[in-house]
């Protein structure tokens, strides 16, 4: 039989192999005979990725989140090549992790060798670090005796999955760590890559780290912004797509609005938010309007232009590169052309977790931070620290920026980088940790602070600050 199969043209055999339902099937096919093994060695790496993605739907390895983390760095580098690519990436975020994987299947690749490395990473890094996270915000944490009666010093009502939280950090690092490196190098490294924007990072956190509280607070603040005197920053608005599709009952969305108040926004017949005048809404710390880096095709108009109505959402009849169904035959949520209002009001398959809140809680956890402190202290002492915890981060407390930059740089190194808190993995990272500290110690200029609404962050990828922006009004004592 095998002799008859291999007599087919090689292109046909490779095409057939690309439609297999799992890596094991591909591997077994390659073992049928020497000729078949030689032919399958020429299969495209993108086909390997697609086979692995199909398998992730039926098998725990590789998980779809692991495949996203494995390809996110390649996606980030692709997005840096042009603003158009970056817009496509930002749009893909709106489909959540599934949307990001869908884009990876179009743009990225994975070899069998890399797949074997992923299996090693799963057991040597992912599983041990997920166990630590579970002790901080997961089931092991909630199982502490007398949890609500002093057994846990940081007791809170958090619904989150430790594995998901791991990949929320890992994918952020894979996407944006090179921008941190560019910042540390003072944009002097050759070749200098165009960094991804804060807008893009916020899109990732809004949709790929979905949180029902971020969604609710965004809607609540949009409705009451005029009454409270706080302008709306369109970068904080969350759409009813991807993980948020049909989440909120919108029947009484307008109930809190005062008809007598002049409003700088309105909801159209499709219940989408439009902003009329946004002059001085976007502030990068210099009290000047900030131009939105996305083009008209992505976010419709410059937010600093107050001469006409502003619509920061895609038109209903707009063609979209991601309009077709995803690779499982499900609608990926990027385009609503084929969906009725009733379809848009569908309930999500699973309730949203407190993903943003859980990640903020983790980063400040007394069970999480000592692991990173141990890794830092192997190369040198901490910079002078006067803040009590990460939560107390304000514009009038600028003296701790070196320590924040060092901690954030270590945290945001991606999939393998999270292994630096494991004793068996630290040695491989000591040289880099030492180099980062040396560069930060030589810096004389404080990173520029960016203001969004009532929250601040830095102009480099600062995960904690950006999480607070997306969770503004819910996380901690923010407003």
Automatic annotation (TrEMBL):
Region annotated Disordered, chain positions: 241-264, 279-303, 325-351
Residues in F-box domain copies: 2-52
CDD domains in the cross-refs: F-box_SF (cd09917)
Protein name: F-box domain-containing protein
Ranges of Basic and acidic residues composition bias in the record: 247-256
Source species: Clonostachys rhizophaga
Pfam families in UniProt: F-box-like (PF12937)
């Amino acid at each position: 039989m095998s002799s008859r199969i291999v007599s087919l043209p090689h292109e046909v055999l490779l095409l057939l192999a690309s439609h297999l339902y799992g890596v094991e099937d591909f591997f077994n096919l390659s073992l049928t005979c020497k000729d078949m093994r030689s032919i399958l060695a020429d299969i495209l790496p993108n086909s390997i990725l697609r086979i692995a993605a199909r398998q992730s739907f039926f098998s725990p390895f590789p998980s779809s989140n692991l495949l996203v983390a494995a390809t996110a760095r390649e996606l980030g580098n692709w997005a840096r090549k042009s603003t158009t690519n970056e817009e496509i990436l930002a749009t893909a975020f709106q489909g959540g992790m599934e949307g990001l994987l869908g884009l990876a299947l179009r743009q990225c690749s994975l070899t069998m060798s890399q797949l074997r490395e992923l299996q090693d990473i799963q057991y040597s890094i992912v599983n041990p670090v997920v166990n630590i996270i579970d002790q901080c915000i997961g089931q092991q944490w909630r199982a502490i005796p007398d949890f609500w009666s002093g057994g846990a010093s940081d007791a809170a009502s958090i619904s989150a999955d430790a594995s998901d939280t791991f990949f929320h950090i890992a994918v952020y690092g894979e996407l944006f760590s090179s921008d941190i490196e560019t910042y540390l190098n003072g944009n002097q490294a050759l070749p200098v890559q165009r960094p991804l924007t804060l807008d893009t990072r916020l899109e990732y956190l809004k949709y790929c780290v979905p949180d029902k509280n971020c969604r609710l607070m965004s809607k609540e603040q949009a409705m009451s912004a005029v009454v409270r005197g706080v302008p709306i920053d369109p970068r904080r608005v969350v759409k009813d797509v991807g993980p948020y599709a049909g989440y909120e009952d919108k029947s009484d969305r307008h109930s809190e609005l005062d008809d007598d108040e002049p409003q700088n926004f309105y909801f159209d017949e499709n219940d989408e938010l439009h902003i009329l005048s946004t002059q001085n809404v976007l502030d990068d710390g210099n009290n000047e309007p900030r131009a939105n880096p996305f083009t008209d095709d992505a976010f419709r108009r410059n937010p600093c232009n107050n001469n006409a109505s502003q619509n920061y959402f895609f038109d209903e009849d707009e063609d979209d590169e991601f309009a077709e169904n995803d690779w499982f035959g499900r609608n990926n949520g990027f385009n609503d052309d084929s969906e009725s209002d009733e379809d848009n009001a569908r309930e999500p398959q699973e309730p949203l977790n407190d993903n943003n809140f859980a990640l903020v809680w983790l980063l400040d956890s007394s069970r999480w931070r000592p692991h990173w402190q141990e890794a830092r202290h192997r190369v040198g002492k901490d910079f002078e620290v006067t803040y009590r915890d990460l939560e107390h981060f304000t514009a009038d407390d600028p003296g701790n920026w070196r320590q924040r930059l060092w901690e954030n740089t270590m945290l945001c190194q991606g999939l393998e980088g999270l292994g630096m808190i494991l004793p068996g993995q630290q040695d491989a990272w000591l040289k880099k940790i030492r180099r980062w500290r040396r560069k930060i110690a030589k810096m004389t200029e404080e990173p520029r602070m960016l203001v969004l609404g009532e929250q601040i962050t830095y102009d480099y990828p600062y995960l904690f600050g950006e999480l607070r922006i997306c969770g503004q009004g819910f996380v901690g004592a923010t407003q």
